[in-house]
Automatic annotation (TrEMBL):
InterPro entries: AAA+_ATPase, AAA_lid_NorR, Homeodomain-like_sf, HTH_Fis, P-loop_NTPase, Sigma_54_int, Sigma_54_int_dom_ATP-bd_1, Sigma_54_int_dom_ATP-bd_2. The keyword Phosphoprotein does not apply. Residues 28-258 form the Sigma-54 factor interaction domain. PANTHER family: C4-DICARBOXYLATE TRANSPORT TRANSCRIPTIONAL REGULATORY PROTEIN DCTD, TRANSCRIPTIONAL REGULATORY PROTEIN. The keyword Membrane does not apply. GO terms for molecular function: ATP binding; sequence-specific DNA binding. Pfam families: AAA_lid_14, HTH_8, Sigma54_activat. GO terms for biological process: regulation of DNA-templated transcription. This is AAA family ATPase. The lineage of its organism: Bacteria, Bacillati, Bacillota, Clostridia, Eubacteriales. PROSITE patterns: SIGMA54_INTERACT_1, SIGMA54_INTERACT_2, SIGMA54_INTERACT_3, SIGMA54_INTERACT_4. It comes from the Bacteria. Keywords: ATP-binding, DNA-binding, Nucleotide-binding, Transcription, Transcription regulation.
């Protein structure tokens, strides 16, 4: 039964792993200053065998950068293998990466099987979602990086491999190291060439360009009209935080082309501004005045009115003494007559 399950898993693992790189730097969109400097840096580190660690929030383009780096390197004619470490069950990942010998486990293929590292020989391996890798597999990976050899599961032969590693994660690996869920030594081995991709909200000038690009692409694909976006709506797009980054933007554009309308959560967005360390939404600021004294004065008038000007009851309700209430009425020039009706 276990081996049947494993067979099913192994088939799906083939789908999870992918072996071609289609993206090149000229297809990566973005003109903002910080993004252009990220592209320049990524180009510079492309043609090297040193390990790259790409970090950035979900949907910031980690995978397309990995492909573009491979395609600009001298390995471009060779294989690019992407392995999603987060999607492969932990009991299978080692044999997927390192291969296995015949008889290594129930259901192992006759003659054994080459792992992704062997298959990627001469090319690039993209270890996506590296932050999800178990500590045991991290040890095996560290050995491959340090020694440049793999030994298949259940075997002892050491097979030399020449593979460039590009790893990616949306986790803060340094934080994971502190928590003990990621090995410090592996982190340093991977983080030789760090590449951090900024979130879309930090490169807002690129939002209109990306919207235009995806509007053309999606409307062509769906054979529908482009939806015209006026400047008020574009401002809303610029104010929006885009937690899902470019992937979210792509989906929002597809939704707009299909429904011919802008999603409400973006249209009804309230401009935010910073007060101290907090972001405050403009819509939540419907006060006549923000001064505490004005709020106190209005509150006293309201309470006095609800007790028809009875000072003792009003003071009791507000949890203060009568004398304090008199003092405050004097300070705010509140006349008893105006609270008696
Ligand atoms: N600069 C860009 N120009 C054009 N398209 C982009 C750009 N960056 C990302 N995309 C598009 O956004 C989508 C998400 O990109 P990608 O899969 O590389 O993100 P990711 O960082 O790997 O996300 P996750 O962490 O969720 O796996 C893809 O469809 C990709 O084509
Ligand atoms: Mg990805």
């Amino acid at each position: 039964m276990k081996s049947d399950n494993e067979k099913v898993y192994r088939k799906s693992v083939k789908k999870i792993s992918q072996s071609c790189a289609i993206y090149t730097f000229d297809k990566i969109i973005g003109k903002s200053k910080n993004f252009v400097s990220v592209i320049e840096y990524a180009k510079k580190i492309s043609d090297s065998t040193s390990t790259v660690l790409i970090t950035g929030e979900s949907g910031t383009g980690k995978e397309i950068f990995a492909q573009a780096i491979h395609n600009l390197s001298s390995r471009r004619g060779k294989i690019f293998i992407a392995v999603n470490c987060g999607a492969i069950p932990s009991n299978l990942i080692e044999s997927e990466l390192l291969g296995y010998e015949e008889g290594a486990f129930t259901g192992a293929k006759k003659g054994g099987n080459a792992g992704k590292f062997e298959l990627a020989h001469g090319g690039t391996i993209f270890l996506d979602e590296i932050g999800e890798m178990s500590l045991e597999t991290q040890v095996r990976l560290l050995r491959v990086i340090e020694e440049g050899v793999v030994s298949r599961v259940g075997g002892s032969k050491q097979i030399p491999v020449d593979v460039r590693i590009i790893a990616a994660t949306n986790k803060d690996l340094q934080e994971e190291v502190k928590k003990g869920s990621f090995r410090k030594d592996l982190f340093y081995r991977l983080n030789v060439l760090p590449l951090w991709l900024p979130p879309l909200r930090d490169r807002k000038e690129d939002i209109p360009i990306l919207i235009d690009y995806y509007m053309t692409k999606v409307s062509k694909k769906l054979n529908k009209n482009k939806f015209k976006i006026d400047s008020t709506v574009m401002n809303k797009f610029m104010e929006y935080d885009w937690p899902g980054n470019i992937r979210e933007l792509e989906n929002v554009v597809e939704l707009i082309v299909n429904t011919e309308k802008i999603p409400d959560y973006i249209l009804k967005l309230h401009k935010t501004f910073v007060v101290g360390n907090n972001k405050v939404a403009e819509g939540s600021m419907n006060f006549e005045s923000m001064k505490l004294e004005d709020v106190e004065k209005n509150h006293i008038i309201k309470v006095l009115k609800s007790f028809r000007g009875n000072i003792s009851l009003a003071a009791k309700a507000m949890g203060i003494g009568r004398n304090t209430l008199y003092r405050k009425m004097e300070k705010y020039h509140i006349e008893c007559s105006e609270t008696e009706q």
